[in-house]
Amino acid sequence: MESTKTIQLKIIDVDNDLVETMQKYSEGMNYVSEVVFQNGKVIPARKLQRIVYGYLREKLGLKSQVSCNIPRQVAGSYKTLSDQIKCKKSEWQKLVYTPSSMTLSYKRDYTITEDSVSITTFSSGRKTYKIQNYDYALQYFKEPWKFAASKVVKHYNGDYYFHLTVSQEIEEPAIEKASTFMGVDVGINYLAVASTTDKKCKFFAGGEIKNKRNIYSKMRARLQSKGTLSAKRVLKRLAGKEQRFMKDVNHCISKAIVKFAVQEKVSVIGLEDLTDIRENTNGKLRKKQRYLHNSWAFRQLQSFVDYKAKQVGILVEYVNPEYTSQTCNRCNHISKNNRKGLRFHCETCGFELNADLNSARNIEHRTRDSRYILESQGCLSTIHTDT
């Protein structure tokens, strides 16, 4: 299986050539977006490339590889929009791109060393820019890591960063040989609760973090009520600070979760498939709870667990999240009355447990079941014959 990681490296000596290149890139993106929008439906990437390649090369003067990257990227964006329309979450609209991001192919559009990145610019060809590297990132410049398509991104504070994507192939463990599973329930009161097949568990508290998020929320409300230009500038800085804070928290928690899994010799980590979780639960939440729930980076935490687990050879399975918080881990009785806040009490068998731990055990059970379901369907084979 492939393990990927993105490292953000600040570009120190940004010049007009790089800025112009990003502006031309967004101009090309918007031209291709207009073509798709006027078509009224998604155009496959290869067909779209044939339609727009000549204009991108001859009229806009973009390089050949960039002229291939742009239609692929736009086609992908409209495919996502189309999927959202099918789910009635959006409507057909023209996607507009700003000169804040540019995708580059390794070797064709960029090369990189530990202290510089060479980028093909629009008017001056290849130019080398200094980057601010970090001790932790140096490991990704060595084997077995390989460079992949990466991005130049303008951050909210105006600084430019090179988002370097690296990947490596890791031997995928055989799920049929898995013996120890772990379920991880993510939440707000506890950022995560992990439980293994042999009932070993670990709690990752979120109370202090929840309080800090509430402080950010109150500060945001005060600034929004003012509505001045200076208040809007502070709001922008505050949003970036809060995002960085949560990202750091999620990195720390995911690292601890995977460390616990390694310690307990876990073969497979089970996570809930949280696709559409916000849409499915917003109607059940009080208005005051919606901001905290909607802005909580559940999926980011899961993605960090996912790639960190892969780096140490642990499989990750996503399971159906329905009723994991209402199902009794002992007798499988399902009722919304079973859960009262942080307490789980089964109204049928009387089983009592911390509610999040009960959910984690249910996730572990479903993850374990997925292995046997695959086997029963013939997707796995544990029968060996002599030849």
UniProtKB/TrEMBL annotation:
PANTHER family: RNA-GUIDED DNA ENDONUCLEASE RV2885C-RELATED, TRANSPOSASE. This is Mobile element protein. GO terms for molecular function: DNA binding. GO terms for biological process: DNA recombination; transposition. The keyword S-adenosyl-L-methionine does not apply. Residues 171-277 form the Probable transposase IS891/IS1136/IS1341 domain. In the C-terminal section; belongs to the transposase 35 family. In the N-terminal section; belongs to the transposase 2 family. The keyword DNA-binding applies. Residues 298-363 form the Cas12f1-like TNB domain. Keywords: DNA recombination, DNA-binding, Transposition. It comes from the Archaea. Pfam families: Cas12f1-like_TNB, OrfB_IS605. It comes from Methanosarcina horonobensis HB-1 = JCM 15518. Coiled coil: none annotated.
